[in-house]
Amino acid sequence: YSKLAAGLYMLEQKIVPFDLLEGDQFGFSIALGVSTNPLTNVQETRIAIGTRFDDDRGQDSGSVYMYRKIDGETEFTFEQKLVAFEWSPGAEMGSSVAMDEHRVIVGAKKRSDVGGYFKYDGST
């Protein structure tokens, strides 16, 4: 949504992942990061969207979908799906997400029965 001059909000874009299944809980956590690409000097905005019950690495292993919008574009485009690097049933990766520029921290509520996190750096 974006805020109009009259103070009302208007829908800009509805984001739905290509492989969403019922019960995945897409949107459970969301973070936004803004950075300037050092090669192009263009501002990029990224959204990280947690889907804690995605099943790519086992039942309820979780994932995070990354979307990017380059300055001047009107819509976000899919960039990458982040999943645990190992088999992680029940980890609920994507229970929380945080961003700082191009870095993403992803919480996994039940990883190894104690919780954990994954760190990604999108600068490379």
Helix content: under 10%
Biggest sheet overview? 4 strands, antiparallel
Number of helices: 0
User: How many runs of DSSP E, i.e. beta strands?
Assistant: 9
Task: Give the averaged pLDDT, no decimals.
Answer: 89
Low-confidence stretches: none
**What Rg is obtained from the alpha carbons, in whole angstroms?**
15 Å
The helix/strand order is EEEEEEEEE
Structural category is: mainly beta
Form type: globular
Strand content: over 45%
User: What is the first-to-last residue Cα distance?
Assistant: 30 Å
Going across the biggest sheet, name each strand in turn: 3-4-5-6
Assembly of the depicted chains: single chain
Task: Give an account of the 3D structure.
The protein is mainly β. It is built from no helices and 9 strands. The chain has strands at residues 2-3, 9-10, 26-36, 43-51, 63-70, 77-82, 93-100, 103-108, 116-121. The strands form 3 sheets. The protein has a 4-stranded antiparallel beta sheet, with no helix packed on it. It has a 3-stranded antiparallel beta sheet with strand order 7-8-9, with no helix packed on it. A hairpin with a 7-residue loop joins strand 8 and strand 9 (116-121). The radius of gyration is 15 Å and the shape is globular. The model has no long low-confidence stretch (mean pLDDT 89).
